[in-house]
């Protein structure tokens, strides 16, 4: 039985028989995997109920991006003065600890010691790494003893593209070591002057590290 409805003019209109209507297939998204470095997305074209296009998997790119963000956070948050230089030894990136240690408000204000940098760069080019102590000068002219560790930075083709280093101020440690040496020297002078024979023995290996003058006279050494 066919249903009858009225149009706007009030005339009777027969509804079309549903059996005479072709059902259209739902559109389907056809996905194709592609290399994210070479894939070029195309406008989607609808043909025969199928939407054709290019889908790019960016999971790997997202992981690389998150890893890079983490490395940058570690670089910036380090208590060591971290920096990255180009092949000429000129600093291109530095963290806050680096600027604070040298007393500069910004990296653009930093004055590089070319002679000092050249020595380290030459060592890096020869062995790929460098470690040592040197006297560094702050912006205000004051100096401190710096302990640095540096390595080369390589590109995708293993070519050297720059250098990275970490520096800490060891002035206090060096001063403490010097004070200790001075104290030991004074102690040995006092022990050497006493009339009683004295010997200092290392309990780890039983080696005698010090003989007083009176002990040498007594034992004939």
Characterise the protein shown here.
The protein has 221 residues and is an alpha+beta fold. It is built from five helices and twelve strands. The longest helix is centred in the C-terminal third of the chain and has 23 residues, at 171-193. The radius of gyration is 39 Å and the shape is elongated. The mean pLDDT is 77.
Provide a compact summary of the structure:
With 221 residues, the protein is α+β, with helices and mostly antiparallel strands. The chain is built from five helices and twelve strands. It has helices at residues 59-77, 96-102, 114-127, 171-193, 213-219, and strands at residues 4-6, 12-14, 28-30, 45-47, 50-52, 81-85, 91-94, 129-137, 143-154, 160-169, 199-202, 207-211.
Characteristic terms for this protein:
221 residues; alpha+beta; five-stranded antiparallel sheet; three-stranded mixed sheet; 12 strands; elongated
Helix/strand/pairing class, anyone? alpha+beta
- Largest beta-sheet characterization: 5 strands, antiparallel
- Note the overall shape: elongated
Q: How many beta-strand segments? A: 12
Distance between the termini: 132 Å
Annotation field: number of helices:
5
State the strand order across the main sheet. 7-6-10-9-8
- Uncertain stretches: none
SSE string, helices as H and strands as E:
EEEEEHEEHHEEEHEEH
What is the residue-mean pLDDT, rounded to a whole number?
77
Helix coverage percent of residues? Answer: 25-40%
C-alpha Rg, in Å? Answer: 39 Å
Hey, roughly how much beta strand do the residues contain?
25-35%
């Amino acid at each position: 039985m066919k249903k009858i409805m009225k149009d706007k003019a009030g005339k009777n209109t027969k509804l079309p028989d549903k059996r005479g209507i072709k059902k259209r297939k739902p559109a389907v998204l056809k996905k194709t995997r592609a290399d994210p470095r070479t894939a070029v997305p195309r406008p989607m074209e609808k043909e025969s109920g199928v939407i054709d296009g290019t889908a790019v998997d960016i999971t790997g790119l997202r992981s690389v991006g998150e890893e890079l963000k983490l490395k940058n956070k570690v670089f910036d948050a380090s208590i060591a003065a971290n920096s990255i230089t180009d092949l000429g030894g000129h600093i291109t990136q530095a963290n806050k600890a680096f600027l604070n240690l040298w007393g500069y408000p910004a990296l653009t204000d930093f004055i590089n010691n070319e002679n000092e940098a050249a020595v380290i760069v030459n060592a890096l080019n020869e062995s790929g790494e460098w470690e040592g102590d040197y006297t560094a000068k702050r912006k205000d002219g004051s100096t401190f003893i710096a302990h640095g560790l540096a390595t080369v930075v390589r590109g995708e083709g293993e070519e050297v593209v720059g250098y990275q280093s970490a520096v800490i101020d060891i002035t206090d440690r060096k001063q403490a070591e010097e004070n200790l040496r001075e104290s030991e020297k004074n102690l040995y002078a006092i022990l050497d002057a006493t009339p009683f024979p004295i010997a200092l023995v290392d309990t780890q290996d039983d080696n005698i590290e010090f003989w007083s003058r009176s002990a040498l006279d007594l034992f004939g050494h």
